[in-house]
Amino acid sequence: MATAMIASQALLCNHSFAVIQPYALTSSLSPFRLCRPQQPMLSPSISTTTPFSPSPIRRNFSLTRRSARRKPTLVDSAGFSDEGDSDVRRVLQILLWAAEAVYILWLFLLPYAPGDPVWAISSETVNSLVGLSLNFFLILPAMNSVGIRLIDAPVLQPMSEGLFNFVIAWTLMFAPLLFTDRKRDRYSGSLDLLWGLQMFLTNTFLIPYMAIRLNEASKDSAPQPQSKLGSLMTNRAPVVGLIGGAACIISIIWSFFGRADGNFGGVTERWEFLIQYLSTERLAYAFIWDICLYTVFQPWLIGENLQNVKECKVGLVSSLRFVPVVGLIVYLLFLKLDEEL
């Protein structure tokens, strides 16, 4: 009986020996020890699991879930990508074109907004606009103050000068942003001309650009070469940001404290003048519209062009882009050079 059991066990061992890899056996093992279940040898590419580590299948499943939860890229998270919802883009375009119609009708043609429409503009408004243009960035008053009098600067209410130069300085800083916009090629016109007209009529031309850049990208369109003005604005973007930012700060200070000897009153009197100015002058009323629209367009454009920012400053620019003027200054300060773009 014992002999039969030993013989059957030997047969089982021989059968296991045929299945198990040859290198799992050694000459020192007895036939009885060979009958112990053997651990199959794993290939070098698969690591042995332990009770405290997940199995390879579970690890692969975990990696798959993590890759599925991958954070969207900067372009996808910041705005509408080229593969985005076409219905959403179409609705935005409709809203932008409607805003353009309202902007032109309400601010230029209809008589219901404060001040005079374009077709009934008064000589007083024209003289004020000419005087504000001569005092662009307060350069002429600064020259007069140090004795340089090529032409005398018009003496205007500092609050009106400050509001004018604040909006113009903000418009200046939009130039490098437009010239580095990743969707600028969808606008077939000249960006040089568009920005030049924007300096005079602000959102009259920026609103259509924002609508046109939402068009679907054409497969046959090739990137247009950068113009000389575009290259200059891109390569000197930090300088443009510093000049525009300084002009905005100086404009605010000038509004409340400029021409202190000109009998324009203190802070309270100037604030009261601003309220009256906005409610009676069409130009000032339009500037409030421009400030509101710039507050929307600035984070929109910056958010869709974060790939133009230096990698180490993307988080900072993304956070500050919603702050009027400040976000644009930061974008320009940390913009990649034209060669890098």
Please characterize this protein's 3D structure:
The protein has 341 residues and is mainly alpha-helical. The chain has 16 helices and no strands. α8 crosses α11, α8 packs antiparallel against α12 and α13 crosses α14. The termini are far apart. The N terminus is likely disordered.
Provide a short characterization of the protein structure:
Residues 1-53 and 59-83 have low confidence and may be disordered. Helix 5 runs antiparallel to helix 10 and helix 12 (237-257) packs antiparallel against helix 16. This protein has 341 residues and is mostly helical.
Secondary structure class reads: mainly alpha
Total beta strand runs = 0
Q: Work out the radius of gyration.
A: 35 Å
Note the main sheet. Answer: none
Element order: H for helix, E for strand: HHHHHHHHHHHHHHHH
Q: Pick out the low-confidence regions.
A: 1-53, 59-83
Number of helical regions: 16
Q: What shape does the CA trace take? A: globular
β-sheet strand percentage:
under 5%
Helix content class? 55-70%
Head-to-tail CA distance between termini: 88 Å
In round numbers, the mean pLDDT is: 82
Core attributes:
341 residues, 16 helices, globular
Give the secondary structure arrangement, pairings included:
Blueprint (H helix, E strand, L loop, with lengths): L1 H18 L11 H4 L21 H13 L5 H5 L7 H24 L13 H12 L4 H7 L12 H22 L11 H11 L1 H10 L15 H8 L1 H21 L9 H14 L1 H22 L10 H7 L5 H8 L8
Helix pairs in contact: 5-10, 8-9, 8-11, 8-12, 8-14, 8-16, 9-10, 12-16, 13-14, 15-16
Protein name: Transmembrane protein
Keywords: Membrane, Transmembrane, Transmembrane helix
